[in-house]
Amino acid sequence: TLQALLFDVDGTLADTERDGHRPAFNMAFEEAGLDWNWDEALYGELLAVTGGKERIRFYLEKFNTTFEKPENFDDFVKGLHAAKTKFYTQLMAEGKIPLRPGVENLINEARAANMRMAVVTTTTPENVTALLENTLGADSESWFEVIAAGDIVPAKKPAPDIYDWALEQMNLTPADAIAFEDSSNGIQSSVAANLKTIITINEYTKEDDFSAADLVLDQMGEESNPFTVLAGDAHG
Ligand code: XBP
Ligand code: MG
């Protein structure tokens, strides 16, 4: 029986990639004196790899192969990524990124229905805190029983590991939960963890393959929530 909703963050709760993560990466590059610029089209290609540190490495492997890597390359990537997180959380604090339509309503209904909730994401934990605090309110992170994020598991989405970890923490089986995702990497991860999955598409992911989804929506509805469609009367 349905007991829990598991939420991806980027692209699902909010459209954070184009106007949040992408400019934050560019600000970090500029601060470090690098002339790299990730425009919207390039960023769409870089989204093939999840995780910010992993994405920087992917960029250098595929799109900027002439860059001479510094000796302590791991620290270099970590430093760049820490700066990116600083800029990203600043952008969130400025309140520039709203939740996607229907998300707040869905979360409120889920709480009213005593649904258990978790966040399951490849992004950095600080970024989740910054988004939730600046949209749903100061204590909203506590509504989520588990924040499964960032480097908690080494193999990020599309691997199922982060969903497996969240389910284990909550002592749930996959049949007890539904995942909310927006991307190919996201649904590969949730489906590999045997979870029913509801997709809300966005500009970067509308061409992705969602044939494994249980439901594909443009956005969450303001009135009738998708988990009631899949689970019958969740208000029971
Ligand atoms: C989205 C991602 C992340 C962010 C960057 O994850 O792929 O890598 O773009 O985050 P999800 P960090 O949709 O699973 O939330 O730079 O903090 O790694
Ligand atoms: Mg996503």
Automatic annotation (TrEMBL):
In its UniProt entry, what is this protein called? Phosphatase
Gene3D superfamilies, alphabetically? Answer: HAD superfamily/HAD-like (3.40.50.1000), Putative phosphatase, domain 2 (1.10.150.240)
| InterPro entries per record | CbbY-like, HAD-like_sf, HAD-SF_hydro_IA, HAD_sf, PGP-like_dom2
- According to the record, the segments passing through the membrane are none
